[in-house]
Structure formats: structure tokens, C-alpha cells
Design goal:
alpha/beta, Rossmann fold, 2 domains, six-stranded mixed beta sheet, four-stranded parallel beta sheet, 11 helices
């Protein structure tokens, strides 16, 4: 039987790494002897989303070990889970944080940014044109002139320490047979790089980008693996056609797919990302194994 595992990175506790591996095999998969399991990180912590905790874990440890006292600065949009998680982690650890937010400050902040500000994060809004320069040295110099000294954390918290942390996600597979496929949605690529580095040699890793035109992630992920000192197994690929025109886009048809899967599997998924994985797994295995086009 072919086994595939998806990683649902919604919430995880910073202290409890007892992860749940759940069987969510649709009937159409089972008829073709394909088992689908969900490595479930949900429901443990209300504010620090699962992969965000793993990405922040060693970054926060390095910050504290170095005796830093300047703010920890990072980047994101109005609905950034990373900014939300960083703000809460800083609040809990008494670490000052700054969030550089894409776009002008709106009359009313998003719920995510309201939370972040209430947890003490300093919000700095920049134009979209300036935001595109966020990784340039000139932009960082300008930020330091404006904000003072800070510790830099890339957008999404994606760096070599994030890759190291995300390798630990697969501790949830300990004691289980290695899957044929490991599937995960991806944004900046650090989580997927960690999964690639930690995956068993017999497992192929599939990443489903939430963004349109995300083929740049191939170079980004290879770069993260190289910088972190992990070998690129080559047993991974990206499914680039799973977006609905861009991040967060979803059609009525996709909502139906999600509702059917949630009803069948008894789990809750992020509308803007995980449904893309859900549909593309089905599409891929239908092509490979002649799965029926309709119904789960």
C-alpha cells in the first residue's frame, strides 16, 4: 500500500512535542490502496502556529544565548502568521519586537496586527515598493537609522536556524513506517527544507506553494539546505499549479472540496493553504493511480 502523510502546521505548544499522526484516508484513495495520514500539530497552543514555533525555536534561543537586548525585527503582511507568532513569543519571553508591515497603515488594523500590537510589538508600515527591498543592505541601513539597532529575522522567520527547528517536526513519525510521500504547503520554504533534510531516504517530499509563480522556491530551498549544511537528497519537488490566482484565493468550488474533506476526515484546515494541498494530492494520485475524478 502506498502511504502519504500531510503536515498540517496550525498550532503547537513550545513545550509539548507529542504530535498526533491521524488516518484521514478518503474512500477513493482506500479503493486504490493509498493511505493518507495527517501529522497533526493542531489545538495545542492558541497563538504560536505549529511550523512558526519550530522556525522560531532556535532563533529565540540564539538571541537569548547571545545576551541580546535590542528588538527582534521581522517582516510580514497584515495577516502574517509569522508576525503574530513572533509578537506573542516576544511578549512571553520579554523580548522587544518590531514588525515591518507591507503597505500603508489602514484605518483599522487586521485582527492579527491588533493582537501583535497588544502584545507589545512595534508596528512599522512601509510602502509596497520599499517592502520589496527588504532583503537589501541599503534597506536595513535605512531601517537602523530610523529605528535604532535591531536583530534581523527574515520574512517568515526563514533562515538556517528555522530549517534546524523544522527538522524536528518529523519527530511525530517516530515509531511509524516511513511514508512514500510527505506533503506540506509552503510559503518561504524553510519548513519544507527542514522536512527534506529530515525525511527518510525512501520518502519523496512534495511542497505545495501558496503563491503564484513560486518556482523561485526551488533556488531558495536549495540555498537554505546548503547554508544549513544539509545534503539535498533530490527526492522532492514543488507542485506549482495549486494556487487559485494568488495567495489566499479560493473559489466556491474549492470551498466545496474543503467542506467535503473536513466532513470526511473530521479535521479543520486553513482555507487559504491546506485546501490546495488537499486538492493537489488527489489530482496527483488520480493521475498516477487512476483514482476516480469525483468524490472522496
Amino acid at each position: 500500500m502506498m502511504r502519504a502523510i500531510s503536515v498540517d502546521c496550525q498550532t503547537v505548544s513550545p513545550t509539548d512535542f507529542s504530535l498526533s499522526l491521524r488516518d484521514v484516508t478518503p474512500a477513493s484513495f482506500a479503493r486504490q490502496q493509498v493511505q493518507l495520514q495527517l501529522l497533526d500539530l493542531t489545538g495545542i497552543h492558541p497563538f504560536i502556529s505549529g511550523n512558526k514555533w519550530f522556525k522560531l525555536k532556535y532563533n529565540l534561543a540564539a538571541y537569548e544565548a547571545a545576551g541580546k537586548c535590542c528588538p527582534l525585527l521581522s517582516f510580514g503582511g497584515a495577516w502574517s502568521n509569522h508576525i503574530h507568532a513572533l509578537a506573542y513569543a516576544g511578549y512571553q519571553a520579554n523580548i522587544p519586537t518590531i514588525g515591518v508591515i507591507r503597505g500603508e497603515r489602514p484605518p483599522e488594523l487586521s485582527a492579527m496586527l491588533q493582537d501583535a500590537e497588544s502584545w507589545g510589538m512595534q508596528l512599522e508600515f512601509v510602502s509596497r515598493a520599499d517592502y520589496r527591498e527588504k532583503d537589501s543592505e541599503a534597506f536595513r541601513v535605512a531601517l537602523r537609522e530610523r529605528l535604532g539597532e535591531f536583530e534581523y529575522l527574515p520574512e517568515g522567520g526563514s533562515n538556517v536556524l528555522a530549517v534546524k527547528g523544522c527538522m524536528e517536526i518529523l519527530s511525530g513519525l517516530d515509531g511509524n513506517e516511513a511514508p512514500d510521500f510527505l506533503c506540506c504547503a509552503c510559503g518561504t520554504g524553510a519548513t519544507l527544507a527542514g522536512l527534506i533534510a529530515a525525511a527518510p531516504p525512501e520518502t519523496q517530499v512534495l511542497g505545495v506553494p501558496a503563491l503564484k509563480g513560486a518556482d523561485f522556491l526551488y533556488d531558495d530551498i536549495r540555498g537554505l539546505l546548503k547554508q544549513a549544511g544539509y545534503a539535498d537528497s533530490g527526492r522532492w519537488r514543488l507542485i506549482l499549479s495549486a494556487h487559485e490566482g494568488g495567495y489566499g484565493k479560493i473559489s466556491p468550488a474549492w470551498r466545496i472540496v474543503l467542506s467535503v474533506f473536513v466532513s470526511a476526515a473530521g479535521c479543520s484546515w486553513s482555507l487559504c493553504i491546506q485546501v490546495s494541498c488537499c486538492w493537489r494530492w488527489k489530482t496527483c494520485w488520480r493521475r498516477v493511480n487512476s483514482l476516480p475524478a469525483a468524490g472522496w
